[in-house]
Amino acid sequence: MPLLEVAGLSKRFGKIWAVRRLSFTVKQGEIVALLGPNGAGKTTTLRCIAGVLLPDEGTIRINGSSVVHEPVLAKQQLGYLPEFPQPLPYLTVWEHLELIARLRNLPPSWRQRAEELVARLNLTEWRDSLGNTLPKGVREKTLLACALLPEPSLLLLDEPIVAIDPIGQQVVKAMLKEWRERGHGIVISTHILAFAEELADRIVVIDRGEKIAEGTPEALRERVHVGTDASLEQVFVKMLQSG
């Protein structure tokens, strides 16, 4: 059984289908990248998986639990970083972690893990700062720490490094690789193709809400008949141009 199973997912806003008949899976110990142009449906897909939006059609299961029909069981296994991270304005960085620990009923050992996350993500100097005072990159790292704290089976990350400085990006990439090695599954939506190429075991390309390709970076290169030294950006552009 896959860790995440998305089958026939469709979501409509009015007369516009943001996602149409999308299917893919994520295994334990696997990073899957969602790629597509602006408006392709990547964020809508992640919001449906996270239970923020209800699908109009299709099923979404996390470790066999339906996000729609068994939301509590499904979401207990999920960590989610939205595209536009918005910490609570009057809670400090540390209080955000305390809130997650209480909501998830984590054992007392959460404090040690929270301290490690704060240190590793370079949040120490911001630990007692309120959410409404944090720079964008710090907001992103704060909510990433909140997503990681319960050690969920599945991580959903929507543009996770856009606002983070280069040193912080290296830290985040190292953490995600470690997470994969420990058997967790990760779905990343990103416009930074070099980031996807470095991390993704498999790539799902969507355009106008529909999947147009899926496979390893090597398989996608073969599909569009480019050399093995072609960048993922070249592959992506050629794939979209060919329809």
Helix percentage range:
25-40%
What percent of residues are in strands? 15-25%
Mean pLDDT: 95
How many DSSP H or I helices?
Answer: 9
Low confidence ranges:
none
Rg of Cα set: 18 Å
Secondary-structure content class: alpha/beta
Q: Please report the distance between the alpha carbons of the first and last residues.
A: 32 Å
Shape: globular
What string gives the helices and strands in order?
EEEHEEHEHHHEHEHEEHH
Q: Largest sheet, order of strands side by side?
A: 6-7-8-3-9-10
The count of strands amounts to 10
The major beta sheet can be summarized as: 6 strands, mixed
Helix/strand layout:
Layout: E1 4-13, E2 16-26, E3 31-35, H1 42-50, E4 57-62, E5 65-66, H2 71-75, E6 78-81, H3 93-103, H4 110-120, H5 136-148, E7 154-158, H6 166-181, E8 185-189, H7 193-199, E9 202-207, E10 210-215, H8 217-223, H9 232-241
General description of the model:
By secondary structure, the protein is an alpha/beta fold. It has nine helices and ten strands. The chain has helices at residues 42-50, 71-75, 93-103, 110-120, 136-148, 166-181, 193-199, 217-223, 232-241; strands at 4-13, 16-26, 31-35, 57-62, 65-66, 78-81, 154-158, 185-189, 202-207, 210-215. The strands form two sheets. It has a six-stranded mixed beta sheet with strand order 6-7-8-3-9-10, sandwiched between helices. Strands 2-1-4-5 form a four-stranded antiparallel beta sheet. Strand 7, helix 6 (166-181) and strand 8 form a beta-alpha-beta unit.
Throw out a few tags for this protein:
globular; single chain; 10 strands; alpha/beta; six-stranded mixed beta sheet; about 240 residues; four-stranded antiparallel beta sheet
